[in-house]
């Protein structure tokens, strides 16, 4: 075991183990359970079913709070729904007993795929949590188009995809006295605290959520999903700590997924390559209303990406007997960019204009739908620097024109964009006499390097070596911070850490002036600096330790909050990028392999070059998976997922990934937050899939509009 | 996973005797067995570990290669005689699974690897192979990865392994030990069974019989051989289609040809009609293309896996090109 301790790795005395039992039908009712054999098995403590489950409170779903299935009724709304929890003294015994649970169902007709109910779509009720409307329109809905107008009208689809982080969802729950403590794999300890206290009718302070490390979330750990709640229910029932680790198979129906999207794009452009109108109509799947609602906001990106006199978008939902979809890396942007950026490539080809040139001719100087200036935008530089590094000028525009021996070579590109988000956050900084500092914040490190970047910022502010700063995260008793999603952790938490560190610094300066001696008394704090663990000014230097001794104190503390500036809403805030891909396609066997990649990104100021590059290449590889491998497959007759494991749900392996060059263009966002960062977690995934599809078109002349790109689609 | 006991007999007769009981299963490298146990696909009450039986020797003598049943995939793939005289075997092994799996997986275990049919592996589905008579939801369901040759209305599960495809092409024989203590030889071509009405019976190995070795005797056809695997990602994926091919070329003419397919059959699939079409011909793209047209004969396809016919033809052509170039 390494130094990072994950939720399931905590050891509590007398810990019991819970294992989920899931349905094998997609719709209907549980008629009853046969538990005789399972209950008689060794070590079984309790089997929780809808018959004996604790009645929960406040069952209305909310952001970061999923309320189905929590064993509150006998209904079945999807295949793989939790129907029981077996608790035993060991994991193995709980697993064996779970397999012995027999469930009797009455099955009713299920909608197992989107296609079966495609015409019965509904308008989302809570689109983007109220932050945007499902539909938008600027200019004429159906502008009269002059003769000579070129049109592209196509349907693009993306499949169900699952996040599949390496660390499964896992919770250890301990109910003791009136206190519920949970160690859980989550991207939002604050949200988990709120959800659990609400469902169990507890005061928030009676719920402690601990999550020091997350082994990947990608959106799947943004909500507090039923397994965490069921673990808490189990500990209250058996009065022992209970560990519940979701199996890989169960992960496919326990914690959300990117829903299938069917997107119709209509572009019209004049022969000079100016867009006259853009339409992007999205249908995406959601679960049955009793389970909840989630709309993949695929067309949001089209509202701001290019300038056109008429831009219209819509989002509709098709209700299917599957679990609740959720955010997945670049939710909306990743799937939406596949549609709009493929269509832009199709239009460029129809116009016989270079794809970059076509995009530049329609460059949005302002956000056309929001009608606001961009807080910052260096997309031109991304195109230019990316193209130069990639060697775009060597591309022969004709499809099927470039070869390397037997292999067809294709070059493709696509634009990337992701909103720059920020939410209120707080942090504290504690400085001790030995010149070491502790940074504390109730955020969580989802693998992005938050421990390091927060320590770096505090070390910079306090003039301390990085080794002297420790960071403590992932505990709901720490100063609250938002969910680690939407690529906003640095933008939200770093300003709070900076402000808290500045608070400590101000106190240190005040101490230097008051206790430093005669020469210090007339010094203004404005001229003081903190360097090498000492206050430095015109009156000389005083070490931190010396100052603590003089002032007879042991510690200096400051807590600070930071929130978005009030004028932030006067701007459209986005990060941008340009993806350049070379593929090799075997013309006989249809095999596509990515051979080169250059991504150029306008992601604002970079706090740590190493963790930033790590996120950029991670996102690009995730995008390769989306383009070429990832697809959750459904048995249309039963609504059951057929490839619910990572042997058959394919993601990219090392052998699929070539050298990736990442370029960060010089850009600092002066508006979105005081640091000038723009968020980096999701941006590199957006545009990756269409860049590959566009390269495949260039290599083969075959346009693939349905992801993932499969051998059979290219077997001419 | 259900409770089971495990024993590690130190001699073959003891192992064979113990393996006769119906509720037992042999375990070799365990790379597939552990998955089957964990997913409750099989629920034996007793496992017999073959580890201590000293069956891992790889021996080359007088042109005959004997691969002990417990020799690991990694060791066989790297063996200089295998690489030189039977390159298709080495290739097939190196394109299998991952290095970790190849370090554990064995010859015997790989021959008996169970299908990756998604319906067989998930007890939430019916499956004639796992639960005889329960039905086959794969045929009207998600059949992309499934077989087009040797299928029956009861089962279209693909044989997943790479190694036996190469062994089938190269006329391998198996050495078996019966519970009575006698050793017998069986041609690999007689080893596997078509699903028919009994898809749960996959081979002619009888209860208690143990595969002790794989024997290869015909060097003439092995030297010019290769294995080509087409799959969705570059590594660590099962074949959509694979081909083991071997040619014996004399005076510029194909004297003898072997073609076997993986990923398309309910068992490793030898295509004699293609071999016949190649014999006596001068190797050329045209000859290869014409010969492989016969691959689709007798294929039963679904909408999702129909592409495998064309893919198999082209895979064989490419493999033949590679060794005749």
UniProtKB/TrEMBL annotation, chain A:
* Entry GO MF terms: iron ion binding; oxidoreductase activity
Q: Which residues form the Aldehyde oxidase/xanthine dehydrogenase a/b hammerhead domain?
A: 1-109
User: In which domain of life is the source organism classified?
Assistant: Bacteria
Transmembrane stretches in the record are none
This protein's record includes keyword Ion transport = no
Question: InterPro entries under this entry?
Answer: Ald_Oxase/Xan_DH_a/b, Ald_Oxase/Xan_DH_a/b_sf, Ald_Oxase/xanthine_DH-like, AldOxase/xan_DH_MoCoBD1, AldOxase/xan_DH_MoCoBD2, AldOxase/xan_DH_Mopterin-bd_sf
Instruction: Give the Pfam families listed for this entry.
Output: Ald_Xan_dh_C, MoCoBD_1, MoCoBD_2
Q: Where is this region: Disordered?
A: 122-144
Alphabetized SMART domains for the sequence: Ald_Xan_dh_C (SM01008)
Q: Keywords assigned by UniProt?
A: Molybdenum, Oxidoreductase
This protein is called what?
Xanthine dehydrogenase family protein molybdopterin-binding subunit
What species is this protein from?
Acidisoma cellulosilyticum
Automatic annotation (TrEMBL), chain B:
The record, for SUPFAM superfamilies, names:
CO dehydrogenase flavoprotein C-terminal domain-like, FAD-binding/transporter-associated domain-like
Q: What is this protein called?
A: Xanthine dehydrogenase family protein subunit M
Domain FAD-binding PCMH-type, chain residue ranges per copy: 1-221
The alphabetized UniProt keywords are: FAD, Flavoprotein, Oxidoreductase
Q: Which GO terms describe its molecular function?
A: FAD binding; oxidoreductase activity
> Mind telling me which PROSITE patterns this protein's record contains?
FAD_PCMH
Keyword Membrane tagged: no
Transmembrane regions: none
User: What organism does the record attribute this protein to?
Assistant: Acidisoma cellulosilyticum
């Amino acid at each position: 075991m390494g130094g990072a301790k994950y939720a399931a790795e905590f050891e509590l005395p007398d810990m019991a183990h819970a294992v989920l039992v899931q349905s094998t039908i997609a719709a209907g009712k549980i008629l009853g359970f046969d538990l005789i054999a399972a209950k008689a098995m060794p070590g079984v403590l309790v089997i929780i079913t809808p018959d004996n489950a604790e009645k929960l409170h406040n069952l209305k779903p909310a952001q970061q709070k999923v309320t189905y299935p929590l064993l509150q009724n006998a209904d079945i709304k999807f295949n793989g729904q939790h129907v029981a929890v077996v608790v035993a003294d060991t994991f193995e015994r709980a697993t064996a007993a779970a397999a012995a649970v027999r469930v009797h169902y009455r099955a009713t007709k299920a909608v197992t795929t989107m296609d079966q109910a495609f015409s019965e779509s509904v308008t989302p009720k809570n689109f983007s949590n109220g932050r945007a409307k499902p539909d938008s329109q600027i200019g004429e809905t159906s502008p009269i188009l002059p003769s000579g107008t070129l049109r592209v009208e196509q349907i693009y689809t993306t499949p169900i995809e699952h996040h599949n982080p390496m660390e499964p969802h896992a919770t250890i729950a301990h109910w003791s006295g009136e206190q519920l403590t949970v160690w859980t794999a989550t991207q939002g300890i604050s949200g988990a605290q709120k959800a659990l206290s609400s469902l169990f009718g507890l005061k928030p302070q009676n719920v402690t959520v601990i999550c020091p490390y997350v082994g990947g979330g990608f959106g799947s750990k943004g909500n507090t999903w039923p397994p965490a709640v069921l673990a808490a229910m189990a500990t209250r029932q058996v009065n022992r700590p209970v560990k519940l680790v979701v199996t890989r198979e169960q992960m496919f129906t326990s914690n959300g997924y990117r829903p299938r999207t069917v997107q119709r794009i209509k572009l019209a452009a004049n022969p000079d390559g100016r867009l006259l109108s853009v339409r992007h109509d999205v249908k995406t799947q959601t679960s049955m209303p009793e389970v909840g609602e989630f709309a993949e906001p695929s067309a949001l990106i089209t509202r701001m990406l290019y300038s056109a006199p008429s831009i219209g978008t819509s989002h509709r939902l098709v209700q299917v007997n599957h679990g609740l979809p959720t955010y997945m890396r670049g939710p909306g942007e990743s799937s939406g960019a596949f549609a709009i950026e493929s269509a832009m490539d199709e239009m460029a080809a129809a116009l016989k204009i270079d794809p970059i040139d076509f995009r530049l001719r329609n460059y949005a100087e302002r956000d056309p739908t929001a009608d606001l200036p961009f807080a910052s935008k260096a997309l031109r530089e991304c195109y230019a620097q990316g193209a130069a590094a990639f060697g775009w000028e060597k591309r022969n525009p004709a499809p099927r024109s470039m070869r390397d021996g037997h292999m067809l070579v294709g070059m493709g590109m696509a634009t990337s964009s992701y909103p720059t988000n920020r939410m209120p956050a707080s942090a504290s900084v504690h400085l001790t006499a030995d010149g070491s500092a502790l940074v504390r914040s109730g955020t969580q490190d989802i693998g992005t390097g938050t421990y390091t970047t927060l320590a770096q910022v505090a070390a910079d502010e306090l003039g301390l070596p990085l080794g002297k700063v420790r960071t403590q995260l992932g505990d709901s008793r720490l100063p609250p911070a938002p969910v680690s999603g939407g690529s906003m952790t640095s933008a939200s938490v770093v300003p709070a850490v900076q402000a808290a560190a500045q608070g400590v610094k101000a106190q240190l300066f005040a101490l230097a002036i008051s206790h430093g001696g005669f020469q210090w008394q007339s010094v203004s704090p404005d001229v003081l600096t903190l360097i090498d663990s000492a206050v430095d000014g015109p009156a000389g230097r005083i070490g931190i330790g010396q100052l603590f001794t003089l002032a007879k104190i042991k510690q200096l503390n400051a807590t600070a909050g930071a929130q978005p500036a009030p004028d932030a809403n006067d701007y459209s805030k986005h990060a941008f990028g340009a993806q350049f891909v070379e593929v090799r396609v075997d013309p006989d066997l249809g095999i596509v392999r990515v051979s080169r990649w250059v991504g150029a990104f306008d992601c604002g100021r970079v706090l740590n070059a190493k963790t930033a590059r790590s996120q950029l290449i991670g996102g690009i590889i995730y995008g390769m998976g989306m383009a070429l491998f990832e697809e959750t497959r459904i048995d249309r007759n039963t609504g059951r997922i057929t490839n619910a494991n990572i042997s058959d749900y394919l993601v990219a392996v090392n052998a699929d990934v070539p050298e990736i060059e990442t370029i960060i263009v010089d850009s600092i966002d002066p508006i979105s937050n005081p640091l000038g960062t723009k968020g980096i977690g999701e941006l590199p995934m957006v545009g990756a899939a269409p860049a590959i599809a566009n390269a495949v078109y260039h290599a083969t002349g075959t346009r693939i509009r349905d992801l993932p790109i499969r051998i059979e689609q290219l077997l001419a | 996973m259900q409770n089971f006991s495990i024993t590690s007999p130190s001699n073959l007769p003891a192992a064979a005797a113990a393996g006769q009981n119906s509720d037992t299963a042999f375990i070799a490298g365990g790379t597939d067995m552990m998955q089957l146990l964990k997913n409750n696909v099989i629920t034996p009450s007793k496992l017999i570990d073959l580890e201590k039986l000293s069956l891992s020797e790889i021996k080359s003598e007088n042109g005959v290669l004997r691969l002990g049943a417990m020799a690991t995939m990694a060791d066989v793939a790297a063996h200089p005689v295998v690489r030189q005289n039977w390159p298709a075997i080495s290739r097939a092994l190196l394109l299998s699974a991952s290095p970790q799996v190849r370090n554990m997986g064995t010859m015997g275990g790989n021959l008996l690897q169970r299908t990756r049919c998604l319906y067989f592996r998930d007890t939430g589905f019916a499956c004639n192979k796992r639960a005889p008579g329960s039905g086959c939801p794969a045929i009207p369901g998600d059949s992309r990865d499934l077989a087009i040759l040797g299928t029956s209305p009861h089962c279209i599960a693909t044989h997943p392994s790479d190694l036996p495809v190469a062994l089938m092409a190269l006329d391998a024989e198996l050495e078996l030990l019966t519970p009575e203590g006698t050793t017998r030889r069986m041609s690999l071509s007689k080893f596997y069974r078509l699903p028919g009405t009994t898809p749960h019976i996959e081979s002619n190995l009888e209860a208690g019989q143990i595969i002790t070795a794989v024997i290869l005797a015909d060097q003439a056809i092995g030297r010019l051989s290769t294995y080509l695997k087409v799959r969705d990602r570059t590594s660590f994926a099962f074949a959509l289609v694979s081909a083991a091919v071997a040619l014996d070329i004399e005076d510029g003419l194909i004297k003898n040809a072997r073609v076997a397919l993986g990923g398309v059959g309910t068992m490793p699939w030898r295509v004699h009609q293609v071999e016949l079409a190649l014999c006596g011909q001068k190797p050329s793209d045209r000859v290869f293309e014409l010969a492989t047209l016969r691959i689709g004969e007798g294929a039963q396809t679904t909408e999702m896996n129909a592409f495998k016919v064309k893919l198999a033809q082209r895979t064989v052509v490419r493999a033949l090109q590679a060794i005749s170039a």
